[in-house]
Amino acid sequence: MSDLATETAHSPASEGGEVGHGSRHPGALGRSLRTSAPVLPFITYVALGLGVPTLVIVNYAFRSNAGRLTTENISTILRGGQYLTGFENSLKLALVTSIVPGVLGTLLAYAIATSKHELFKRLVAAASGVLANFGGVNLAFMFIASFGPAGVAIKWLAAAGINPWDHGFNIYKLWGVGFVYVYFQIPLMVLVITPAFHGLRESWREAAENLGASSWRYWRHVGLPVLMPSVLGSMFLLFGSGFAAYATAEALTTGTIALTPIQIGAILQGNVLAGEANIAYALGLAMIVILLGSIGAYGLLQRRSSRWLR
Amino acid sequence: MASLELEYSLAPTEPMEPFSTGRPTKRRIRGGRGLVLVIAALYFIIPFYAAMQFSLQDIQGHFSLQPLSQILTAPGFVSALWLSTQLAVATMMITLVLMVPTVIYVHLRMPRFRRVMEVVTMLPIVIPPIVLIVGVLQASPLWLKNSQYLLALAYVVLAMPFVYRSLDAGLGALDLKTLVEASRSLGSGWFSTILRVLVPNLRSALLSASVLTLALVFGEFTMASLDNWTTLPVWIALAPTNNPRINTLVAMIFLLATCLLLMGLVSLDRSKSRHSRRS
């Protein structure tokens, strides 16, 4: 993910030899097929590795265990109970772990982007790339060892007289999981928001200052409005990342927490009431729909912000 | 932004930028920035340091390097490591063979297709791994389902978002057309053009994509556990060791190793400043 959301308008590539879209000349079809032949392996791979599995999920989501077409799986979820609670928790968790790390990540990215040390910036980018992908089991174990009930950092805090576990902190509950998610969400935010800061031109600040604007007014009227689409868009990406995360919560709580991905995993591993097996697919479909929405919003806002970011 | 604003006004005297217009336009936040960076560094280092201290202890709770020597003899560790290594190599090879020629070709001949590639390579983010693996297991034929390399095939999909972006940015920084035309007019075929001209020029993009793929394979738990393969992360989470310190230690070593590897690559590579692409 190291270069996620780098500017896309930059295209020194050759413009020659494009596929002739909509061309009606005889032979044009053959030529356009020949031009696009080299991308066929990629398209085939995506179709088989991503398209077919998705279709399978959509298909099973609308089938009963006996194989008949039904909307029963969907209505079971919507009727309430544990699956709806799972969605509620997942959405709450994703929302909070997109907004808080989103704001903190923006501040951090700004502090890094204004640095003049090129090497430092690239090292931070590399570290962010690793940390943003550092979800899962390893992360969970790190936090159990440091902030778990017998964790080392907790011992330090307890020695200083404040043990968070005595004040309602619990790493195995919903907000404890959220606390852990922040560790990979902030680097993800830094990764995706950094290109936006390069779009803030020095001349704008100079112009604002020559017109007598204070730093506050510069940010209020120039900086923030330009950055806002990127910030919001990136937060949608973080929302998706927090919403889809499974391994971290599973390893942390051994599946005792009601989150939708955990529930899907539990059903698949056979911990399920008879006749509810296909609910896993319906839950999966619902997740895909929600994630499509958030990534779509990311794409739209990204396009809007690219107006300023060249 | 409010806290940054505050720091701004607290640190009014800063050295001017070389291209400054004479006014001290860069009344910058050296103080504020330092504060933000220190807090962030602490936030990212403290859990890591604490986990390291937790795992490098003997039974009395004193610092000891003994857990390091116990890793290799821990039951199941070596086979999990071997399985993850095989998957990592397979994933990297498939990814590179599939993506490099495709992205190069799209840059050269089908620039319009880049939009499609961008959207398509975002899709793996939309389909969560837990959902994707369910579909993959249902859709694949039995012979493939019984193979460990099904995981490698699925990991290629998971790696697409950052591999594509890395390659796309790397190619964007090259004068691709000139390079290819020069190579072709000197008589080399496509194969040797890619291998001997483009790949060396894309070195840093390829390396960082590879390291991130490596990190992905060595960290991926969801798919592996649902496919019932004991890869390294599955071993870390579920291994029946009587000493959880070992598992934590392995997790930390891999985080440290990937981080150092990628940072090392980045700092060694001076050929291409990221600045050259902008402006």
The shape of chain A, in one word, is globular
Strand content of chain A: under 5%
**Strand-residue fraction of chain B?**
under 5%
Low-confidence stretches of chain A: 1-23
Based on the coordinates given, report the CATH architecture of chain A. Orthogonal Bundle
Helix and strand pattern of chain B: HHHHHHHHHHHHHHH
Taking the sheet with the most strands of chain B, its summary is:
none
- At the fourth level of CATH, the homologous superfamily of the largest domain in chain B is MetI-like
Per CATH, the class of the largest domain in chain B reads Mainly Alpha
Termini separation of chain A comes to 21 Å
Describe this structure in words.
- The complex is a heterodimer of chains A (310) and B (279).
- Chain A is built from 13 helices and no strands.
- Chain A has helices spanning 28-36, 40-61, 72-78, 82-113, 118-132, 136-147, 152-159, 174-198, 202-210, 215-244, 247-253, 260-268, 279-305.
- Chain A is globular and about 75 Å long.
- Mean pLDDT of chain A is 81; it is low at 1-23.
- With 279 residues, chain B is mainly α.
- Chain B folds into 2 domains: 2-55, no CATH class; 74-277, Orthogonal Bundle (MetI-like fold), CATH 1.10.3720.10.
- In chain B, α4 runs antiparallel to α12 and α14 (232-238) packs antiparallel against α15 (244-268).
- Chain B is globular, with a radius of gyration of 24 Å.
- Mean pLDDT of chain B is 79; it is low at 1-27 and 272-279.
- The interface between A and B is large, with 108 and 113 residues.
